[in-house]
Amino acid sequence: MSKVLVLTCSPHGQASSGWPVVESLLDKIRDDDQEARIVYRSLSAPGFSFPPAAYASAVLSGAPATAPEFAVSETLISELETADMLVISTPMHNFTVPASLKAWIDYVLRIHRTFTPTPSGKVGNLGDIPTFVIVSSGGFHHGVRANQPDFLSPYLSFALETIGIMSIQYIYLQGLAYGKESVEAAIDSGNEKIRKLLLR
Fold first, then answer.
1. What is each CA distance from 48 to 55, 84, 152, in whole angstroms?
2. Neighbour count for residue 85 (Cβ, 10 Å)
3. Is the pLDDT confidence value at 180 over 80?
4. Which has the closest alpha carbon to 90: 177, 28, 189, 11?
5. Whole-prediction pTM value?
6. Do the Cβ atoms of 148 and 99 come closer than 8 Å?
7. What's the Cα-to-Cα distance from 188 to each of 28, 85, 109, 195, rounded to whole Å?
8. Cα separation, 194 vs 196, whole angstroms
9. pLDDT value at residue 87
């Protein structure tokens, strides 16, 4: 039985415009593995907070992993360590990741825990897992209609690769602010991309 960790980053949660594509991806995963266990982590839930000063101090002082200041970080890292696949459903906010996803990154990228510094750069301590990132945006940042930059993809890829996750695929849902027909076209495009990726 495989475990799929799904991170939802939109303040709209499962009511977001791109959620049908997430459901389509999960349905295909279940088709391949009927016993797959889906674990949801909402990063915009009221109880999810930014790393406080005590967390930063614990990192700088080299506190042990059992320190209470690392409780949230350890929970999130453990979810990654026990996952066989990662799905990230995120909007693009102001050209890059939303604050909720940045907070998750700040919790899971932890020196001497999920990565080790070396003279030639950081080396990830976690195993690689298939990762699908579904990015929803009101405008266009890829293709012939692109009219804004995409800082989300390179940054998120670099962050995940730092901890050892290399197998990353992006599905872009663009033009969601251009009306119903544009939303439907984006969802159709996303579902087609998923079909092609899972047929490989």
1. 14, 23, 21
2. 19
3. yes
4. 11
5. 0.95
6. no
7. 15, 23, 34, 11
8. 5
9. 98
Mean pLDDT of 160-189: 96
Where does the pLDDT of residue 200 fall: very low under 50, low under 70, confident under 90, or very high at 90 and above? low
The mean per-residue pLDDT over the stretch 16-26 comes to 92
Read off the pLDDT of each residue in 167-185 and give the average, rounded to a whole number.
95
Cα distances (Å, whole numbers) of residue 133 to 8, 113, 118, 179:
10, 24, 28, 23
